[in-house]
Amino acid sequence: MVSAPVQVAPPVQAPARVRRLPRWVAPVAGVVAVVALYVAFRGKAVLPHDDDAAVFHWLNDARDWVDANRNSSPIFLYVVNYLRLGVSEIYTLIQGALVALGWPGLIGLAAGLGWLAGGWRIALVSLAGFAGVGVLGFWEASVDTLALTLSAVVLSLLFGIPLGIWTGRSPRVRRIVTPVLDVMQIMPTFSYLSPIVLLFLIGPASATFATMIYAMPPAIRITSLAIQRVAGVAVEASESLGATGWQTLRKVRLPLALNTIMLGVNQTIAAALSMVPLVALIAAPGLGVDLLRALARVNVGAALIPGVAIVLLAIVLDRMTRAAAQRRDGGGRARVVRWGGFAVLTAAGLVLTPVLAQEFPEQWHVQLVRPINDVVEWIETHWYTFTGFVNDVVAYGLLNPLQDVLTSAPWWLITAAVLVFAWRVSGPVAGVIAAGCLVGVAALQLWQHGMETLTIVLVASVITIAAGLALGVLAARSRWFAAGLRPILDAAQTMPSFSYLLPAVALFGNGRFTAIMASFIYAVPVVARLVEDGLRAVPPTVMEAAKSAGSTDRQLLWKVQLPMARGSLLLAANQGIVMTLAMVVIGALVGAGALGYDVVAGIAQQEDYGKGLAAGVALVLLGVMLDRITQGANGRRSPHKKRNA
């Protein structure tokens, strides 16, 4: 019997592998398309600035309606006016109490609180700090600044801590509150001065409200985080014993979260102190008035001294609240020593108040204005060639070409380019929000000034991020360099933003580059710190494994540390850009122009109120756009992870 032949199946062919285009093709094609469209439509649909735009008149009419109905509308009669009077009374009460203590009593109270918070070291810092304010010759103005700061901090904590507790316990509330806090923190400080003045007029009340808006977000965020971090085991144990929700909150959650909440208090005070000088623009008393006068006279020494006084107040309040947050309750003896030291120091100051003069003795003042101005004059004389060269290089090499492109390109092309870029970098939601913000700037009739502001912000951000990245890398790789850099960064972060303007004016004159340099000094400390923290957070085991594989220091940085610190680097870029925007706006006071000038003009001149208010909204839109792009990029997976997914 013949067997049938065995049929062999044909070999299965593997499916043809689809060749993917290199990753760089799409971005390059997009850039080419944008350039081609720019060349084709350059100078069309550019939306030039118009000081007589209809939206400005509409906002002026709204202001006139508010002024006409301030004493007749129920909203103002029974809500807004009472809020203004109530906040004014809080400020008057605190300011009166501080003045009544006299300079010896206030110094003694500060030293006593320092002893209570952290022992003799903090007491010595508090005593030296407050005495230094008097020696600088700014005691009365410093008391007004302290009163305004405390008023804003009290209100911020009064509303911020309960709201933070609520958001910490409720995810639904947290989802609602978080976007509002994002906008409050992104918003440049100038942006809400106009609406605050419209509602509460000029003076301490409006200044307190403006400072409170700026200072409240840290209190809410950190309190919420503290409540969320309370161990679930402790909460479950309390509930299993029959405790109600209120009892668990009061006896378990709050005590365990207290130290972190105190850090929130610390950050709220720091934010309030940084804002207080700016509200001098709306007739707030204090050191900001001296800063504005010095700015008007271009007197660098007269501007730095009140800035140093604010730094001293900030250092004292910072050390005091940090020590209170880190304090561990000792036994009964330690408690007696703390309260005893507080009582002795405070009593000593109060006893000396009627004995010594009410005002800080003028013969104890140290005159530093003239020496500082002599140094500035020497720098202007000997460095003018170099500073002028740097100014011209940045202006003609970066600012002017970029501004020409942004202001001559069609508004729809820039909006589409931002939409695509933000979509690719941060996702579709960020892309739509970013494009919507630009549409809003166009609708406000402020496109040209918006692009001029964006030009300064982009150039300043590139310089700031590059310098911050370099400093952060050096600090992360050398503890000696980090130790030397830290006090410089501390001083730069504490100094009020106004104080940066005049040294920059002395070096570079009035103009856009002055605002860039001031924003550089203001923002680079935060960028450098975040970069350093991110690089130091890379696990030592990963570093050791890379070293054992033969990686050089350069390979270790570029292929291990920087990729693993991607989140911190993107956060550093985000914070650098947002802080740069805030400072560039203040640069309007030294000739930076654009939207910042519109806001200042709206505050100073009644006929420009509508333009100033619209410019404030446009600044918020630009801030939201830049924030969404950079913050959204942090939530996207890196290309390396995408390829390995």
TrEMBL record:
Residues 142-321, 450-630 form the ABC transmembrane type-1 domain. The chain crosses the membrane at residues 24-41, 90-113, 119-139, 146-166, 192-215, 256-282, 294-316, 336-357, 429-447, 453-476, 513-531, 569-597, 609-626. It is found in: Cell membrane; Membrane. Keywords: Cell membrane, Membrane, Transmembrane, Transmembrane helix, Transport. It is a multi-pass membrane protein. Coiled coil: none annotated. It comes from the Bacteria. CDD domains: TM_PBP2. Its main location: membrane. PANTHER family: GLYCINE BETAINE/PROLINE BETAINE TRANSPORT SYSTEM PERMEASE PROTEIN PROW, GLYCINE BETAINE_PROLINE BETAINE TRANSPORT SYSTEM PERMEASE PROTEIN PROW. Belongs to the binding-protein-dependent transport system permease family. This is ABC transporter permease subunit.
